[in-house]
Amino acid sequence: MPVGIFRVCLVVITAIINHPLLFPKENGTVPENTEEIIQKMKEREESLRLEQLRLEREIADQEARQKTLEKAAEVVEESKEENVRWDMWTALSMVIFLLIELWRQDFQEANWQDTGGEEDDMAVLGKAFKGVAFPDKAVLASFHEKRILGTTGDMARMREMVEGFADDLLEALRSVCNRDADMEVEDCVGVGSMYENWRVRKPFVCDLIVPFAPPEPYCFRPQTWCSGDPFPPDEQGYGTIKVCRADEDVTGCICDKTKLGEDMLCLLHSQANTTRPSSEMEDLLCFKNTQCLDTNQVMKWFQIAVTKAWNKISHKYEFDLSFSLLDSPGALKIKFRSGKSIAFNLTPVVQYENSDVYFISHFPRSSLSEDLPSSAHWFLTFAVYERRFIQLVSKTLPVNACHVSCLQILSFLHGKQCSLTGPSGLTNYHLKTVMLHLLQACPSQNWGPEKLEARLQDMLKFLEKCLHEKKLYHFFIGNGKVPAELGFPIIFQRAEPLNLFRLFVLHRDVYRKTVDTFHEMLRNTSALINEYTVHIPLAHTNGIRKESL
């Protein structure tokens, strides 16, 4: 009973305590807290969902980048393999190209150096000779003796007279020049046909070249197409000359680095600076604000200097001196009171390093030939080496060898034909180049005087072949067979052969005119020679024909 009563009381007390009306304030906030908790849980769930989406995107981006890197690595590997294959083919192609080029050069050199030495090759040529009556050796010998030797006997006296006067004139030129500011002029050198003894056309003209150099401390630094300097193909065979101080780099001028002083002249910028009062030169010969020596400026300076020198010594001579050609710096003419005259060329040149190759400002050439690219470009002349080569080879030839006779006859025929039909692209220099090639190719014994007719025909056939191919290579440039005794610069021997007939490739009208003139000359050969030949009895001619060549 007491236990039951206790249980009933405990239940009643518990019910009373848990009744909501007993604690209204405490239990009234339960629903509000629950809503806030639910709201926060929703917000947390949303943020977790957004974070999950962000992480998924980052994982997807990383996977995409990984795939991209893997693809790039595959592409690089493939490109490396392709490059290796391409490099292999490139190297193989270059090797094949070099082998072909070496073979071409060897074949080319063998052809153009040895063409004149093969009688069979010569027989294949000469298509233009068909139907042409060529004079025999008796007529040719008579023509050469009566027409050429008979009119060239006074060349030695003329050379001696001109050289003596030129030396006196240059000595006077040195005396009127300012040694501290003007160009230094050296002794003249005789070159060309008058000094190689094959000049035939009158008036006889002596060609003298005069080397000159700048005053100290300046120097000339030549540049050529075969010395590694950049030159376009149409400027091969030419060169430029830079004026600079001996201790300065050629790429800059020292006038803006050093105070020159009031009495000093900048060679490169003379137009912008005041010239020294004691100097006789207003301009030191450079081309349009550059360091390159200008051929036109050199021409003006040299003409002025020669005029002053002549004014100083004219009282010693009983003749007058004048310039015969306005476009040539040293084309001079001596006029005697008797009315006779002597012409000679005194041309300024610049020496190439320590050789006898010279840069020449103006060069005798055909009226149809190419002009210089600009007045900053200079011709190169190998005339001194050409004269030495002829002298060297002449020592190995038979007595009274016919090489000079052949060149004289060919030059005479060409000159007469040009006087009838007008100038052509051929010059006497081309004719001499043909002779030089044949001198090197033909055995020495084949140049005896009795071989005059055969060798002259060889020269004409060789020239015909060159005209047909539009190729006549310079004798020295690219010729590895030049005798070592000449001391010829190796840089020109190793250069690519220079085609003297390049003009014919570029100008078809000039080529056609030249070929027509050559063929007309062949047709007129007998008539021209017979016109200037003393009559030879027919029986004597037939007897000579039976002799073997």
TrEMBL record:
Residues 38-79 form a coiled coil. The keyword Cell division does not apply. The keyword Lyase does not apply. InterPro entries: ITPRIP-like, Mab-21_HhH/H2TH-like, MAB21L/cGLR. Keywords: Cell membrane, Coiled coil, Glycoprotein, Membrane, Nucleus, Signal, Transmembrane, Transmembrane helix. Residues 404-477 form the Mab-21-like HhH/H2TH-like domain. Pfam families: Mab-21_C. It is found in: Cell membrane; Nucleus outer membrane. GO terms for cellular component: nuclear outer membrane; plasma membrane. It is a single-pass type I membrane protein. It comes from the Eukaryota. Residues 1-24 form the signal peptide. Enhances Ca(2+)-mediated inhibition of inositol 1,4,5-triphosphate receptor (ITPR) Ca(2+) release. Belongs to the ITPRIP family. This is Inositol 1,4,5-trisphosphate receptor-interacting protein. It comes from Ceyx cyanopectus.
